[in-house]
Structures are given as C-alpha cells and as structure tokens.
Amino acid sequence: ADADPTANQIAELAAAGASTGITASATDPDAGATVTYSLNDARFAISNTGVITRSALGTLDFETQSSINLTVTATSSDGSTANKSFTLAVLDSPEPVKFNAPPDANTAANQIGQNAAAGTAVGITASAKDPDAGSTVIYTIDDTRFAINSSTGVITRSSSGT
Question: Residue 16: which of 51, 58, 61 has the closest Cα?
C-alpha cells in the first residue's frame, strides 16, 4: 500500500533525494518479523521505512517516458516476499537549449570581407535544439556588426555597427 497521500509524481529534472510521493507500507503478521524493501529501478532509492526518492543514478525524460511503473519488493525476516506496483507520473520541466555538435551547421569557411555589404553571409549557421516537446529555438546575437535570422540561425553582416 502507499502510506503517502500526496500525488505520485516527480519532475524530470528532480535532484537526488526528491520525493516521489510514494511510501510503500507492508507488514508481516508473524511476531518479531521485520520487513525490508527493495526497488526495481536504480533511478530511485527506497528507505528502510518505504519512502521512495530520486537516486543520483540515471535520467528521467518526460518526452520519452511520462510515467514509470515501480515495483517494490517487501521481504520479511522470515524470507517471505510480496510485490506491489506503483505508477509514478513524470512531470515535464523546462530543459535548457543545447547547441548541436557541431554548433555551426554551415560547412563553409567562417569569414567575411572587411567591407562586406549588409546581408552578406559569414558562413555560420547556428544549430541548436530544445529537448522540450513542441518548443522551438529562437536565435539572437549580441554583436551589432552581425545579424542572425531568429528562426534559421544564419548569421549575416548587419547594416549597423562597425
């Protein structure tokens, strides 16, 4: 049984030790018997009181696995066992944009003439990906001598700056 009344959920970027909202609870009716717990997924840890938390191992990814089935095995000191499954919802978290490898999708030389006209391509096309489903990358550049197409990442000479 789950002795924790809160929702069984965890953010995909949750740190080690974060709560899942699951506390497994099992008893052995035999006098003096004690119960220990084990778990089928190394991305999580279970305490001797049945509290399930995020471990430091592995990753969670909402985009590929929005729920996880955890199986807890309760083992009595007399050797008997019982299994209980819990469904854990993985919550989407905003993940940082990452530049692709290589970050320049243009194989041309990265150069431009000293007196190049505005709009001249410099041979650089920024290439990045947002791992969040349905998200798009918007490119910006902070050097006024250049412009970047906010959707394609193509960098050109700007009409301002020197």
Answer: 58
